Amino acid sequence: MFLDFDGTLAEIAARPDLVVIDKRLPEALRALRDALDGAVAIISGRPRAELDAMLAPLVLPIAGLHGLERRRADGSMVSHNGLIREIEQVRRSLTKAVAGLAGLQLEDKGLSLALHYRGAPERHDECRAIMDKALDEHRDCLDLLNGKMVFEIRPKGIDKGHAIEAFLDEPPFSGRIPVFVGDDITDEDGFAVVNRLGGITVHVGATAATGASWRVSSVDRLLAWLQESASHIAADTGAPVEKRDNA
Ligand SMILES: [Mg+2]
Fold first, then answer.
1. Any catalytic annotation for residue 4?
2. Which fold would CATH assign to domain 84-155?
């Protein structure tokens, strides 16, 4: 079970740091993890440390920054930090470009940089131009990504689909049918991979152009579904279907 965080497990807030965790969430995730023998991972654009802080004391496998930093189920870390110099140049350029522009928030995630314009939606084109300019000399190794009211610059070839595939090579995920739930454009890479592998893909929110095969109307409904699923799976330990000897 692979789960996006913002807009999937938690309602989106005006700023990423204002997100409020539903009180059902930690218990639902813990129950789901136990029911699925530990095969529950968070796949998010946020830094891993932020996700840990919000889910504490629960510690789950996590792909943070779209997979730039990944903690396996055994607790070991995989991180891609080969582009620190390029990211530093982009950081300087963006800091200068957005200084004094009201309603914009530059979020420094360390290995990626996000420009939020939820506070000034009319600045969409301006933000796009700022990000394009900052990216200019680094297009061979960095990518520009467009999410909900946010542009993000991050290393190329890192996305949620790759993060999910990496988990699926490892226990306790390997050999199991993947499920991925997400709500945003960056989740489409994950939907594509999970669909290709014969898994189940679920889009959260109003009808949108998505590659997901299933949908759930809201974060609230998803939390209810996760809680219910966990209790059904936990109750269902008796292996009701068995292989027939002469089948
Ligand atoms: Mg999301």
1. yes
2. Alpha-Beta Plaits (3.30.70)
